[in-house]
Amino acid sequence: MTRPRATFAMSSGSLVPQFFRPDLLDELRRHVDVDPRLVLTELDSDAARRTLAATEILLAGWGAPVLTRADDAPRLRAVVYAGGVAATCLEDPRGLAARGVRAANARAANAVPVAEFALAMILLSNKAVFRAERMYRERRAFFDRATELTDTGNHRRTVGIVGASTIGRALIRLLRPFDLDVVVYSPELTPALAAELGVRAAGLDEVMAAGDVVSLHQPLTPETTGQIDARRLALMRDGATLLNTARGAVVDHEALLAELRSGRIRAVLDVTEPQPLPPGSPFFDLPNVVLTPHVAGSMGGELHRIGESVVAEVARFVAGEPFAHPERLDEA
User: Name one GO cellular component term (predicted).
Assistant: First the structure.
């Protein structure tokens, strides 16, 4: 049987071996006719347009060029995206959907390391590890934990989660073995879904006020831009931690800076607005802030999980099966 023609499209050919181990490429080639050395980084040259014209499955990834002329891909039947949203590389996803083009993404695969990062930060924040490390480094001597690190630990603490997104739900699953109360705000969180997830549903203000750690996982939309504003930050408990692995712009950073300067709350920020922060940003100098340079998502060997997801989706498509992680292009 003739294998469908597949083509990689990413910002750089160097991404292919980062996502796909040799064994994954071997598995991929069992299902499709693909040359891993041929990666479309632009779609305007004659060579790129010839390649695209023969492509039935587009294996797109980070920084993929946007398909602006659907007629350049007359044989296209599927887009399998090594990332969160396949529609980001399609100018007219609805038009392609009307043609019968299907799509899948690796959002669930990329959610795993973000949820793992959030879990680690929650446990370490509640345990006051970041404060203890700083105090030990500064004093170079042990100190009295019973008097200087009070109200710490993860027993019967409350974790607030904003956004029952793919990452938010992955984090909820990871939190289950721990003796923590999990309270969640998400617009689509019905009582039935909350019961299924094993969490307590609440309004956003209640989540902000209840959490010893409040972990942000909402998408960035016009409605969520600046959603965590001065009023909501003021609702947080004294000594609570704001954890952001979502998007920097969901937080009003001027309001956050004011709260952090007061010393009343703490923050763990893997994303900021702007990103990266300018070298002179006061966030770098605050002792109650942990800053990481957007490392929560897939890195290093974790990228292979995304590659595994892509290969599995291609195998399903070629076998005539539905995608495990479909993306509705007609709703993009």
Answer: cytosol
Strands 78-81, 57-60: pairing is parallel
Residue type, 261: R
The residue range of the domain holding 62 is: 6-109+300-331
Q: What φ, ψ does residue 208 adopt, rounded to 5°? A: -60, -40
- Asked whether residue 29 falls in the same domain as residue 66, the answer is yes
CB atoms within 10 A of CB 98: 12
223 dihedral zone (left: phi>0; alpha: psi -120 to 50; beta): alpha
Per-residue pLDDT of the chain (332 residues; tens, 9 = 90+): 799 999 999 999 999 999 999 999 999 999 999 999 999 999 999 999 999 999 999 999 999 999 999 999 999 999 999 999 999 999 999 999 999 999 999 999 999 999 999 999 999 999 999 999 999 999 999 999 888 888 899 999 999 999 999 999 999 999 999 999 999 999 999 999 999 999 999 999 999 999 999 999 999 999 999 999 999 999 999 999 999 999 999 999 999 999 999 999 999 999 999 999 999 999 999 999 999 999 999 999 999 999 999 999 999 999 999 999 999 999 98
Residue 285 and residue 173 in one domain: yes
**Domains in the chain, number:** 2
CB atoms within 10 A of CB 107: 19
Q: Which residues contact 194 (CB under 8 A, 6 or more apart)?
A: 184, 200, 201
CATH number for 224: 3.40.50.720
pTM: 0.94
Structure tokens at 190: 């019905």
Q: Is residue 140 part of a domain?
A: no
Do both 50 and 166 map to the same domain? Answer: no
* Statement to judge: residues 167 and 204 lie in one domain: yes
